[in-house]
Amino acid sequence: MVRVIALHSVIPLRSEPAETAEMSTQMLFGETADVLEDARRWTRIRLHQDGQTGWADTKMLTPLSDEEWSEHKRNEAIALSVHNGFIPRVALPMTYAVSENNGQTVPLTAGTRLLAYNNGVFSLLGVRFRIDPQAVLVNPLILNLENLMQATRFFLNIPYLWGGKNAMGMDCSGFTQTICSLFGISLPRNASEQYSLSQRINKRDALFSSMNPVYSLEHAQAGDLLFFDHPAHLEDDAPHSSTEIERVPLPATTDAPPKITHVGILLDKKRILHCSGRVKVERLDNHGILSMETADAAHPDGRYTHHLVHLSRAVL
User: pLDDT for 286-315, tens place per residue?
Assistant: First the structure.
């Protein structure tokens, strides 16, 4: 099996072998993958971290020899052992590492894993890098409201980018995957896949954390994931005053499985942190997300933009 590693900050993975194809996700610095198909200019790969597949520009990928791969896996096992199953990672939206070989800087985005890390220094393929230790998380954060607010305050207003999971642009599930990784929670890449975790009762996935359903917003707590299907019918569902909010239903769902289109992180029973247009905090109730960005004279309390269908909690 041919394996590759990313030595660039971010490598786009596309749905087809073309620059104009949709970007489905991104490969971060230090991530590794199996090569599935080689089409010269383009290479189709499967990421080891979350199993996502896509086409990458071949010149952006660095092949790994069998010896390098063995050393990489050894460093990963050591890191997991030393940090109780957690690999140190970048916690800020963006920081910089400096190569001790040539002094060049490499911008690193949040969620980037750092193997062989110790006190501001990490190594990759024999190259030592220096990094601000204040930008690195060596142990997972405890999942509570205070830590959520601290961990995410610098992510606010990062713009939405389909397939993105870095400081220059994220989509909704790239955001939840990145933030949850800081709390030791491993999630799949896409919202529908994240939703599926809590449907796999008694079925563990070696790559990901377990998720349990939460059956009521009243029983939810900070850090729970909220899943949404179709957008609300804005003109029909928007409340005209704050007293109407709890009495305005969104369109009734059917018995068919919901088509999950959006995911966010609960702050408290009335607020959600999510990426829709940008990373932001918005109001929430049992119907869905109520956005003040859609407020007007007829709807001073805003309109519903997403329909809440499910809540999940990671099993830590």
Answer: 999 998 888 888 878 788 999 999 999 998
In a 13 Å sphere around the CA of 91, the CA atoms on its Cβ side amount to 22
Q: What are the structure tokens assigned to 77, written together?
A: 């096992």
Euclidean distance between CA atoms 130 and 95, whole angstroms:
11
What are the E-state strand segments in 67-186?
89-90, 94-99, 105-109, 121-124, 127-131, 136-137, 165-166, 169-170
Nearest to 283, CA basis, from 315, 233, 238: 238
- In angstroms, rounded to a whole number, what is the distance separating the alpha carbons of residues 166 and 153? 15
Tell me: do 130 and 187 sit in the same domain. no
pTM, two decimals, is: 0.91
The CATH number given to whatever domain includes residue 262 is 3.90.1720.10
Which one of 23, 41, 64 terminates a domain?
64
Which residue, 185, 272, 294, is CA-closest to 220? 272
> Along the chain (316 residues), what's the average pLDDT of each consecutive run of 10 residues?
95 97 98 95 97 98 97 95 94 97 96 96 96 97 97 97 97 98 96 90 80 92 94 47 36 65 96 97 94 83 90 91
Rounded distance between C-alpha atoms, residue 289 and residue 3, angstroms: 42
Both 121 and 155 in one domain: the answer is no
Which domain does 48 fall in, by range? 3-64
Domain count within the chain: 3
Amino acid symbol at 298: A
